[in-house]
Amino acid sequence: CPSYFLSFPFQPLLFRPSTLNRDCLLPIYIISSLLGLVGNGLVVWVSSFRMRQTVNTVWFLSLALADLLYSLLLPFFAIKAAMGGLWAFGDFLCKVINSSLFLSMFASVFQLTLISVDRCLLVVRPIWAQRLRTPLLAWVAAGMAWLLAVAFSAPYFFYRELFCKSDHKGERCFCINNYGEKEVQVARQQTLIVMRFVVGFLAPVLIITACHMVVALRTRHRNRRPNRMTKVVASVVLSFFLCWLPYHVFNFLHGWDSRMAVKVGASLAFSLTCLACFLNPLLYTFLGRRFQEGLRGSGRARWLEAALAEDSLGSAKRSRCNRSLGSTTSSDLRMGQL
């Protein structure tokens, strides 16, 4: 029969101090979930029902849905932490809940990559980008990002299962990773760790960094200050990677080193990722133009509408592009699209 390999992430560390779950992780899960549900729920509502649909609102809506999913899953881990690592929701939810966390992670990082590429194209090829940059195409790109996220999170659904054992305390159940036979379990675990790091962190970091370097160089070359949208995107990207970097580092260490300090560090690093699910609405708010004016408005969520509006975050670039379109001959347009 297959041996069960207890491995982080999202699994009980059987030998860590019980107070870590109760005193440290439990409050983080509860607070992060509440803030994430309120903040991202408001972003979803405003971008879906209160605003004209634009490319930016599609990006923000898709990213908010990923963060909202993460926030919805955290109460399960709060209950798990309160129970000292025991799992009380059965085998199916053991698979679904844990794999959905990875779905949210991949969806978020893929969406951030799309947003960064979009900003880069607006700077490098403004005429070409404005002619092809439509909400429909943004929905297609966002949908493809979610499909890729489903594909990369699928292994965690199949390898996750419920493991129950009986002792003098009665039957206790844990939601664990089962990587199969002993001969292949370590190799499979390490393969997933490397895949998660490369696809979910390293490759997006390289692409996003390259995009923002291009934007910064073009902006400096033209002696222009970065617009509000560029600042919002850069802040969201930075907060996401700062929250997830310790997680990936400790997972790498845990894949090749099972010492207790690494296990406890991995658990604490996972709790840091919870911050990413509610930081984005705060960044939209405080970096969006007319925040103070929106707060004093009479309409509900006026401040968030001002923060997410296409014209308030990216109108300067669009208006410059439109003026360029109006003053450029048809032959120049064809050259600009090459």
TrEMBL record:
Limits of the G-protein coupled receptors family 1 profile domain: 39-284
Compositionally biased spans, kind Polar residues: 322-332
Region (Disordered): 319-338
Transmembrane segments: 26-46, 58-79, 99-124, 136-159, 193-217, 229-247, 267-287
Superkingdom in the source lineage: Eukaryota
Similarity section: Belongs to the chemokine-like receptor (CMKLR) family.
The protein's name in its UniProt record: G-protein coupled receptors family 1 profile domain-containing protein
Signal peptide: none
Alphabetical list of InterPro entries matching this protein: Formyl_rcpt-rel (IPR000826), GPCR_Rhodpsn (IPR000276), GPCR_Rhodpsn_7TM (IPR017452)
Membrane topology listed for this record: Multi-pass membrane protein
A single BP term in Gene Ontology: phospholipase C-activating G protein-coupled receptor signaling pathway
Keywords on record: Disulfide bond, G-protein coupled receptor, Membrane, Receptor, Transducer, Transmembrane, Transmembrane helix
Compartments in which it is found: Membrane
Species of the source: Pelusios castaneus
Record's GO cellular component terms: plasma membrane
Molecular function terms, GO-annotated: complement receptor activity; G protein-coupled receptor activity
